[in-house]
Write a structure and sequence with these properties.
By secondary structure, the protein is α+β, with helices and mostly antiparallel strands. It has a domain of 93 residues: K homology (KH) domain (GMP Synthetase, Chain A, domain 3). Helices cover 47% and strands 15% of the residues. The protein is built from five helices and three strands; from the N terminus they run αββαβααα. A three-stranded mixed beta sheet has the order 1-2-3. The two termini are 58 Å apart.
Length: 146
């Protein structure tokens, strides 16, 4: 695994921990860090997140994350012990919404209609006789010739 991927995963874990435990901004709300992309020179990192709520709540969360950015970068510097901590930029992760829409469309396409429950008649509940499997009818006679 390359260093950029490892660093991205470490930043994702640490940011999630910092947002859950140390950032007390009520504007942030419920945020999930989904992935972090780090450039090859390790100087920039784009943090993708999802926020619970509608579009207005997402904008409020984006402003709150921008306010918390200096604190988060400083705390990451203490945890990661890098010479230069990557510049962070936050972006809403749209892939989760797209995935939910695709799953919804697939569910509509392949929705199975359950047959209604039909009560059994006494005739259907009777055990079959032994020779009922032998008399298969004309559609199965051609297989007997092979």
């Amino acid at each position: 695994m390359s260093r950029t991927i490892r660093l991205g995963e470490q930043i994702r874990q640490d940011l999630g921990d910092l947002l859950a435990r140390e950032v007390h901004d009520p504007g942030i709300g419920f945020v999930t860090i989904t992935r972090v992309r780090v450039t090859e020179d390790l100087l920039q990192a784009r943090v993708f997140y999802t926020a619970l709520g509608d579009q207005a709540a997402a904008q409020k969360t984006a402003r709150a994350l921008d306010r918390a950015l200096p604190f988060l970068r400083r705390a990451l510097g203490q945890r990661l012990r890098l010479r230069r901590v990557p510049e962070l930029s936050f972006a809403i992760d749209e892939s989760i919404g797209h995935q939910a829409r695709v799953e919804e469309l697939l569910a509509q396409k392949f929705r199975r209609i359950e047959p209604p429950l039909v009560p059994y008649t006494l005739q259907e509940l009777k055990p079959r006789s032994r020779d009922s499997g032998r008399n298969r009818g004309p559609q199965h006679k051609r297989f007997d010739r092979l």
